[in-house]
Design goal:
The protein is α+β, with helices and mostly antiparallel strands. It has one domain (10-78). It has 2 helices and 4 strands. It has helices at 56-59, 70-78, and strands spanning 10-16, 21-27, 34-36, 42-48. The chain has a 4-stranded mixed β-sheet with strand order 2-1-4-3, with no helix packed on it.
Length: 81
């Protein structure tokens, strides 16, 4: 395996904004935000809109997830004139 070509693999906290659920796992994703975790250490924070805590397939209930006006933005941009 070549040295210095792989991204850093580290502990990262993912925050599901739609269900207010946080979980820690390992990832190579980068971010400028950090969060203080339950163990007292600071970890990088990645915000996601959907995770297993909010996805209808895993929860068994329908949940409306607002994707920050993406549909409206698309319709506005590509609306027939």
């Amino acid at each position: 395996m070549k040295k210095d070509i792989h991204p850093e693999y580290r502990d990262v906290v993912f925050y599901d904004t739609s269900s207010d659920y946080k979980f820690m796992t390992k990832s190579t994703m980068t971010t400028g935000e950090t969060i203080k975790w339950e163990d007292g250490n600071e970890y990088p924070l990645i915000k996601v809109e959907v995770s297993s805590a909010s996805h209808p397939f895993y929860t068994g209930k329908k949940l409306f997830v607002d994707t920050a006006g993406r549909v409206e933005k698309f319709n506005k941009k590509y609306k027939k004139k």
